[in-house]
Amino acid sequence: MTFVVGENCIKCKHTDCVEVCPVDCFYEGPNFLVIHPDECIDCALCEPECPVDAIFSEDELPEDQQVFLELNAELAEVWPCITEKKEPFADAEEWDGVPDKLQYLER
């Protein structure tokens, strides 16, 4: 089982989750983070750290977020690993909860 970063991370990209990950399984893209499913140990430390509730356990991933399971796996193979917290985007609060953000995902 793995944890999955979902749509609400797009254009917010808070990195609080990265600091608590004991296995460094987060990977960073231009405006989104992903979790490498083969590296995640299902410890659940990251989920409560996300200020925009964008991290889900695979078995609790909402139906409308299922595409993110595959996206996390795909993008974790090409993006660099991130292990230290960074400042969120200046307009992150404005993007929190905005629907249909997949269209804004930068690869």
Describe the structure.
The chain is 18% helix and 11% strand. The mean pLDDT is 97. It has one domain: Alpha-Beta Plaits. The chain is of the alpha+beta class and 107 residues long.
Descriptive tags:
alpha+beta; Alpha-Beta Plaits; 107 residues; single chain; 4 strands; two-stranded antiparallel sheet; 11% strand; two-stranded antiparallel ribbon; 18% helix
CATH topology grouping: Alpha-Beta Plaits
Identify the CATH class.
Alpha Beta
Tell me what the CATH architecture is.
2-Layer Sandwich
Sheet having the most strands: 2 strands, antiparallel
Number of domains: 1
Count of separate DSSP helical elements: 3
Mean pLDDT equals 97
Helix content: 10-25%
Rg calc: 12 Å
Side by side, the strands of the main sheet go 1-4
Shape: globular
**Order of secondary-structure elements:** EHEEEHH
Provide the β-strand percentage band. 5-15%
State the separation between the terminal residues, measured CA to CA: 25 Å
Alpha-beta classification: alpha+beta
Q: Which assembly state applies to the chains in this document?
A: single chain
Low-confidence stretches: none
Topology, number of strands? 4
Topology of helices and strands:
Blueprint: E1 3-5, H1 16-20, E2 26-28, E3 33-35, E4 55-57, H2 67-76, H3 92-95
Antiparallel strand pairs: 1-4, 2-3
Characterize this entry briefly.
The chain has helices spanning 16-20, 67-76, 92-95; strands spanning 3-5, 26-28, 33-35, 55-57.
